[in-house]
Amino acid sequence: MNQALLKDTEDAHAAPGPHGLGATLKALREARRLSLAEVSGRLKYSARQLEALEGERWDVLPSGVSLRGLVKNYGRLLEADVDALVSMLENEVGTLEAKPVVLTAASLSSSDLNMQSEGGSRSSWGWLIVILVLLIVAGFYAIERGWVPDAWLVFDWLKQLKQ
Hints:
The protein has helices spanning 2-14, 20-31, 36-43, 47-54, 65-77, 82-93, 110-113, 118-145, 156-162. By secondary structure, it is mainly α. The chain folds into two domains: 17-93, 434 Repressor (Amino-terminal Domain), CATH 1.10.260; 118-162. Helix 5 packs antiparallel against helix 6 and helix 8 packs across helix 9 (156-162). The radius of gyration is 34 Å and the shape is rod-shaped.
């Protein structure tokens, strides 16, 4: 009996499981008997991207949060341990955290400092004029209807509008 157990252990070591994230995902997908086309339809990623993920061709895949989301969604579809898959991804690709960028005044150009484009400035003035005209029209309407008290009418010509 010990020899049979020893043989099973040797077979397990001789045929190791998949190494790496891509091989793991491929093995899980094949165990569920899913094709790349089926997975692509469910995840809304192209089969080419999934092939690249399973082949661990990181240069043709999106990076950062997008890659992490792809791995998480793929793991959920395969009902695998998502946290383990993400840690495998971080071990292979590196940390996926956003790296802070230090900006200095010398690295900024004048176009970076300008908050609005030229067209935006002109349209702001246009809106300001439209709002001002509407307020004036509303004010004259309020005076003509008698909604404004006489004490507020400081000019004689405004009092004549009320009559």
